[in-house]
UniProtKB/TrEMBL annotation:
<feature type="binding site">
    <location>
        <position position="107"/>
    </location>
    <ligand>
        <name>FAD</name>
    </ligand>
</feature>
<keyword id="KW-0285">Flavoprotein</keyword>
<keyword id="KW-0560">Oxidoreductase</keyword>
<comment type="similarity">
    <text>Belongs to the GMC oxidoreductase family.</text>
</comment>
<feature type="binding site">
    <location>
        <begin position="591"/>
        <end position="592"/>
    </location>
    <ligand>
        <name>FAD</name>
    </ligand>
</feature>
<dbReference type="InterPro" id="IPR012132">
    <property type="entry name" value="GMC_OxRdtase"/>
</dbReference>
<dbReference type="Pfam" id="PF00732">
    <property type="entry name" value="GMC_oxred_N"/>
</dbReference>
<feature type="domain" description="Glucose-methanol-choline oxidoreductase N-terminal">
    <location>
        <begin position="294"/>
        <end position="308"/>
    </location>
</feature>
<dbReference type="InterPro" id="IPR000172">
    <property type="entry name" value="GMC_OxRdtase_N"/>
</dbReference>
<dbReference type="GO" id="GO:0016614">
    <property type="term" value="F:oxidoreductase activity, acting on CH-OH group of donors"/>
</dbReference>
<keyword id="KW-0732">Signal</keyword>
<keyword id="KW-0274">FAD</keyword>
<feature type="active site" description="Proton acceptor">
    <location>
        <position position="590"/>
    </location>
</feature>
<protein>
    <recommendedName>
        <fullName>Glucose-methanol-choline oxidoreductase N-terminal domain-containing protein</fullName>
    </recommendedName>
</protein>
<dbReference type="InterPro" id="IPR007867">
    <property type="entry name" value="GMC_OxRtase_C"/>
</dbReference>
<feature type="domain" description="Glucose-methanol-choline oxidoreductase N-terminal">
    <location>
        <begin position="101"/>
        <end position="124"/>
    </location>
</feature>
<feature type="active site" description="Proton donor">
    <location>
        <position position="547"/>
    </location>
</feature>
Amino acid sequence: MASRTGSLPTPTASIQEVANKTFDYVIIGGGTAGLVVAARLSEDPSVTVCVLEAGSANLDEPAILVPVQYGIHIGNPQFDWAFMTTPQPYANNAPALWPRGKGLGGTSGINFSFYQRPLTFDIDAIKRLGNPDWNWSRFLDYSKKVESFQPPTPEEADLNGYKYNLDSHGTDGPLLTTFPFKKSETERAFQKALSNLGAETPDDFMNGNICGVWSGLTTMDRETGNRSYSANAYYAPNASRENLKVLTNAPSSRLIFAPAGGEHGEVQADGVVFTHGGEIYTVHARREVILSAGTLKSPQILELSGIGDPSLLRPLGIDVRVDLPGVGANVQDHIYGRVVFEIDSSDKWETYDALQNSDFAREQLALYQSSREGIHTFGIGTMAYLPLKSINPEAAESVIASLVAKVAKLEDSALKEQWTLTLEALKSDNAPDCEITFIPGAAGSGYVLEAGKKHVTIVGALNHPLSRGAIHITSTNAAEQAAMDSHLFEQDEDLQIMAEILKYCRKIAATDPFKDLVVRELGPGPECVSDEQFREHAKRTTESFAHTAGSCSMLPREKGGVVDSRFKVYGTANVRVVDLSILPLHIMAHPQAFVYAIAEQAADIIKGVA
C-alpha cells in the first residue's frame, strides 16, 4: 500500500458536501492520527467518513516535502499553531512556545522526520497503568502495518554504519521510511565521541531497545526524495474515494449530543459544530465522533462540549454532560536544551550554516529537487539514548533518593503509580531518560554567529519528566487558545537532570575525535561552570520538543483517566480520542511512530476487528 510522494491530484471537500450532512464517522483533525483513521475506516465503501481539519491542505508544499528545512515552519501561521504556554514560575516566569503542525498531516508535516519505536518498557507501562489489552507484540504488529521500509544501498550502510533488521520493519505500509542519504563528517565525529564515552550501538533499535548511540530512520521516499507523512501516505492515495470527505479550514468548536443517550445512560454524540469561511455549520455523525485534534486541542474541544471538570466548566456557563476531571490533566512533555559550538571552518566539516545565505539556499533547493544532490541529502539521524546513571551515577543516585522520598509521601495514587514506573526506569540500565541529538548547525538564539564560520549544536533532552502540566479552557470561545501550563521544572529533579544532560553535551565535545574540530563554545559559554550556572542556563533556554502528551490519558476513570483502553471517552457512548493525548506516561522516544501505530490500532477497534 506504500504511496510514492510525488504530486498527486488530491481533492478536498467543499462546504456543500459537508454542512448539515450525516456521515457514519466524523473525525476532528486531519493530522498524523486523524488521516490514518480516516483512510482505514473508508476502506469499506459502505462506510462514510468526514474529516474536519482546521488548517489548510498544504499539499505539494516544498516547505513540507523537501528535507533538511528544520525549523522553517515554526511560527509560520500556514504550518504552525504556535501555541504559547502560560508564564512558567520555575523557569524565570517566561512563557514557552509550543509549536504544533497545522494543516493536513499535522505535525507529521513539519517535524524533524525522526521515526523510531519506543521501548518495550514504554508499552508495558501503558498496560501496567490499567490497560490489560496493551502489549509490545500487538504494538509491533500495528507499527509494522504503518511502514514500508526502504533499505539503504550496501554502500550507504557500510559508509554510514547503518544497522537494521528487516524482520523488525514493515514492507508494504503506507508510510515510507529509510535512512538519510548521507551522513556528515561532523556527525561521524559526534557518534565516535559517544562511542568513546562508552555508548554502545544496538543491533536493532526498532525492536524495543533504543539504548546507546545509533543512526535512525527518517520518513522519506527514496525515489522522490520527499517527506513521507500522513497527508501523502494515507490521504492522497485515497482522496478520490466517494465515501471520504476531507474539509480544510474548518476548525471544530464542540460536539453536539442527541436528546436520548446511550443504552447505559452515556451521552450520545450526534455531530460537531465547526466554522468555515466565517460561518458556523454542523455535521452529523451516525456512529461515532473521533477526536484527533492533538494533545493541545482535544481537551479543549471536550471541555467546550461539557466533558470535563465541573469546577472549571460551570463558572463558564457550560452544561456538564460528563463529569470527567482528568480532561486536560496529566500533561507531560519532552524538553530539551542545547550546547552550541563554533567548529573548524574547513570544507571537510559539512554544516547547515551556508543555508543562512538566501541565494545559496535557493540554489541548494533547486539542486536537490532536480538531482537529489547537495546539502539537503544530509539528514539528522544520529542520536543517543542514555540512562542518567550512565551520564552521572552520583546525580542519578541523588535523583532516585529524592524521588523515593516523594513517592513515599504521595497521596495521589495515579501519580504515585506513574512516578513508581519512572523510578523503575531511573534504576534500570536499559531505560534511557536522556536523549542526545546532533545538529550540524547553530540551533536557537542568544549568541552571535560570525559570517563564514561553521557551527554545530549538541541537543540534550529529558524524555521522562516528573512535572505534570494542565490544559484548560478559560472561555467559551473556541477560537481562543486554552490556557496551556506545562509546569516546567515544577519538580526540581527535572531541572537537576536537565543540568546534568547539558554538562554531558559539553563532555562529548571534549572527547576524541569530536574535540579536534571544536574551536570554541558559544552557548552557554565557558563561563558556565557550576551546577547552579547550568541550572540557570536550563531555566533560560529549555524548550519543548513539541511532543506533548497525556491530556486525555488512557487510565482507569477513578485514576484521572479520560479514555478507556479502546480509546472511548468515559461516560460517552460513541466519542473516542485518537492522538498522543491518550498516552498516560510519556515514552522515552520521539513519538511519531507511536502515534501512527496507535491510530492503526484504534481504526481496527472502531471497525470491530480488534
